[in-house]
Amino acid sequence: MLKTIFKYFVELSGNPFASSLLKSMTSSRISRPLIQPFSTIYRINENEMEHPIHHYNTLQEFFTRRLKPNVRPINQSPNTIVSPVDGILSDMGKISSDQSFYIKNRLYTVKEVLGDDRKAADYVDGYFFILYLSPSHYHRVHYPINGEVAFRYALGEKSYPVNHLGTLFGDKPFSTNYRLISELSTCFGKIALVKIGALNINSIHLLHSSTNFKKGEELGYFSFGSTVMLFIEKNPRFKPTTVINSEVHMGQPIGEWT
To answer: Which of 19, 39, 223, 226 is an active site residue?
Structure first.
């Protein structure tokens, strides 16, 4: 029962009023007694956290916690792309010419996610990764490679849960959720880093507006449940280095250019 309640707290609901209420609750000190049970239920590794658990005053502070320095080593090989988040690699593969792929048993197109035919065309015959962050995961987002931000834009006005129920009953949540898209220019071509917020509250928070970045540099964080997608421009030298349904850590290589 308590785990179900926590899922509502971090994934919210389909009702804007309820989501607003839950956001207020998790951001207030009245949620502090829930931090330890949350940590216990989701088996949070407290040894990795930047601060001891008693440091956090609200469930939101705890949910968006940072980690200790060097807990997530960043693979610095110049020809690798690393996971931008801790999460489950729920799907990956080549992007076909018809621009469609399955996300949790529903069909989506790159155009629906990126919101533009021309932008989507850049990734035909390229590669995609879908990373799902559960309540147990570290919810900060980092750059997966060295480069610069060529373009950054937001799409979507409404949101649904980015979980199994949301993808089953929501109105194509990956194409209607509020999402923040960073188009990255790298020495291997274009990469789209898509941060997908959960439900009807913008849960994506950027830490800075800098356009130049290094692999592993922190970009921002999710204050509620979330998913990240990566689209990689076609390059015959690229290949994935992990498998679907595996748990990945931020900084771990998920692909490389050979």
So the answer is: 226
Phi and psi torsions of 19, nearest 5°? -65, -40
Give the model's pLDDT for residue 104: 47
In single-letter form, the type of residue at position 124 comes to V
21-75 pLDDT, tens digit per residue, is: 667 778 899 989 999 999 999 999 999 999 999 999 999 999 999 999 999 999 9
Going 123 to 161 to 173 to 178, the CA torsion angle's sign is negative
Active-site position among 19, 142, 203, 223: 142
Give the whole-angstrom CA distance, residue 249 versus residue 258. Answer: 22
Structural tokens at position 154: 């937001």
Q: Which pair of tokens denotes residue 199?
A: 């439900």
- For 125, 238, 247, the CA distances from 98, given in Å and listed in that order, are 10, 20, 29
Active site residue 226: yes
* Cα–Cα distance, 254 to 142 (Å, whole number): 14
Question: Is 205 annotated in the active site?
Answer: no
Angle between helices 16-26 and 2-11 (to 10 degrees): 100
